Amino acid sequence: MPTTSLTMNRQRELLLSDDRRVIVRPFAVGGEHRIRSVIDRVALLKEPEVTRLLSEVLRDFSQRHRDLEGSFEEHFTELAAPLIDDPADLSIERRLLIGSYLTMEYAIEGAALFNPSIVPHPDQSGLSAGTLRFIMSLRATGDGHVSSVAFRTGLVTPEGTIKLHPVSRYVEAARKVRDRTYHKHTFFLKLIEMGAYSDFAQVVLDRLDDEFKYTELTSTIDQAPTDGFDPAAVQYTGEHMRWLARSNYHLTFPDDCDVSEVVIYPVTENESRGIEDARFVRFVDDTGAATYYGTYTAYNGYDILPQLLETTDFHRFRITTLNGCYAQNKGAALFPRKIDDLYMMVSRIDGENLYLMWSSNISFWNEGKLLQVPTFPWEFVQIGNCGSPIETEAGWLLLTHGVGPMRQYCIGAMLLDRDDPGEVIAQTSEPLLIPNKTEREGYVPNVVYTCGALIHADQLILPYAMSDSATTFATIPIDALLNHMLNH
What radius of gyration, in Å, describes the C-alpha atoms of the chain? Predict the structure, then answer.
């Protein structure tokens, strides 16, 4: 097993999964026929019985959720209303009762809580001098190994001590904004990249404004003339145009909910089996304005797709696809600012090596080059990044992971030139963090892994996961790390 001459200071803070943290989800009970059966059975109940049954459900479950009745109404509208001739004829109690049968709880972190990233909180008010408030994202995994993005908050003291805030008793699943606006030119470029652009697609686009909404897109597809087009080609194009639109969406959470209540659960087909390993970064533009971006892997059970989260307050999120020939595979991580007026990103597009990518458009990545290949025995299988590069006076500090014998994951580091990040200045020949005896047992054994760190109080603050099961922290003086890298 490799050893390291540097010592990471492991902290006592430990985050374990909590199966009491549940969201409500739509429950389609097996399809349209089964939903109709539920509707018919509830329709036979007398109104007093409806009121009694609804009261019992609310008594037993309303304390577990902020707005359970609102969820019942939403699930009724989504799953039952389209199957009823006139839903408005039903009493509100009967609608809510039907909605309760079409609702289920899901323990978002019932299996594990791991793969963290950490960024400064947007709100740094009310703190003592030298204290930093942070937000940490985590991969929460529940039944069926479906992954969501969960959040925690805490403080780093002037001495570099980490203090986590209490977690809210509630968990809030997002409300999807159903009619967001799309830009025609970007939509056109993505259709070409998908291989879904056709003459019929152009007919549809010609009938849309430069900015359009999802309902406008779907109605235009349905109403566009199809004379002279192969029916199968029309169907293929229409399905892919709708799929692309559904893959780019907005999510909102109540303004008064705590960040620890926010959970980003899969809502589209391409992420139906998980939102994996979000790498968040606080990105500062040329005006000094900050936006938080999170790159993640969408997984549908068969294919993976790189996606981008965008927020300024962790209550409203914009989700878009990452496009281009270099937007492939897993582990994309943005630099926290532009370099030479270009966005930059590191990724492992071929599953084995690290690449540097650059673009004038944050959504399209068509230029890049090989940055580093597996070099040392502890990373001979593959290397990848462990979050966004961190700017220091010495250069861009890029935490990396390497996979070695027995599929053991270790964490190391590279130092990239500040002006030309395609130049590797230094690299740790030995890992900084290796799974110890208390960390190697878990859902995926022999793994330490992180999706992002930060520097505060002259310390590298590194949250990391232990064998895909739980999360803890390690720290190291940043000067000691940089001096070691530059002098060994």
Answer: 24
